[in-house]
Amino acid sequence: MTQVDKAQPLVTVYMPTKNRLELLKKAVNSVYMQTYSNIELIICNDGSTDNTEQYLKSLHPKGPVSLVSTFSNTESKGACHARNKAIKMASGFFVTGLDDDDQFLPNRISSLVEQYDPNFAFICSAMIWDYGKKQRVIDKKPGIFSLTSQLSYNEATTQILVEKDRIISVNGFDEAFVACQDYDLWTRLMQKYGPLKRIKEPSYIINNTATTQRMTANPKSVKGYEQFYAKHGHLMNWQNKQNQEFMKLRRQRKHYPLYLFILHLCSGHLIAKLRYLISSYLRLMI
């Protein structure tokens, strides 16, 4: 049963973790540092073999976090299994995710709840890519994005704030996906509940340093796009299909032929394609 407080509804943060203890501590601390005052934290230890279990046992409510729950899988069942289990356990009216190698900025939850509108499927925000020596804000254009836009590119970014019951109604994360599980779930939410709302204020830091391994560098990400296309291709127009072709090629880090770039010009995302075209040809020159 979700809890509703009209002033500050309970927000559940769900977090899967596996063998990233030092990064996990930073992620958890970023939840404790939230300015929003009504938070539940649920962490799933997905078969860690380090000291994660001992650390989780030491956690307790602190600051804005009034409820802390942890559970462990003796064998790894995957991040999406962990997320689904945590979401089902959640007491919050809203749920939002945090990866164990990422961090919230202090205003993360307060900014999303403040601008949430139930007329849209969910709310998300711009993100900060942290490369260690530098940072870059991505997906910073605010606005309302339709399902058609979503089928060309994951406009929802990596995490969202959404009503728990909405995720339950679409059966949560698809555990058969090897990647793009978030892209798939956000798309299914939009199919049922309409466009998404994105705010320009970045409040989530994506760790893309040597301390982590992002899916962008993982061969499974290509398979994830193939699964996404197989599941949602019947909804796509020709522009969507061209953009899916481009994203798959970029994930494979393949050469971007000039003729294909010209073919793709009419389907949007020109800046991303131009940047990749230039980097593609620069690699050939090295």
Short description:
This protein is of the alpha/beta class. Helices cover 39% and strands 19% of the residues. It has two domains: 11-217, Spore Coat Polysaccharide Biosynthesis Protein SpsA, Chain A (Alpha-Beta Complex); 220-285, no CATH class.
Put simply, the count of helices is: 11
How are strands sequenced across the largest beta sheet? 3-2-1-4-10
CATH class descriptor of the largest domain: Alpha Beta
Low-confidence stretches: none
* Class by SSE composition: alpha/beta
Question: Termini distance?
Answer: 58 Å
Structural domains: how many:
2
Relative helix content: 25-40%
Strand percentage: 15-25%
CATH topology of the largest domain: Spore Coat Polysaccharide Biosynthesis Protein SpsA, Chain A
Largest sheet: 5 strands, mixed
Radius of gyration: 19 Å
On the 0-100 scale, what is the average pLDDT?
Answer: 93
Any idea what the shape is?
A: globular
CATH architecture of the largest domain: Alpha-Beta Complex
> What is the string of helix and strand elements?
EHEHEHEEHEEEEHEHHEEHHHH
What's the total number of strands? 12
Q: Which superfamily, in CATH terms, is the homologous superfamily of the largest domain?
A: Spore Coat Polysaccharide Biosynthesis Protein SpsA, Chain A
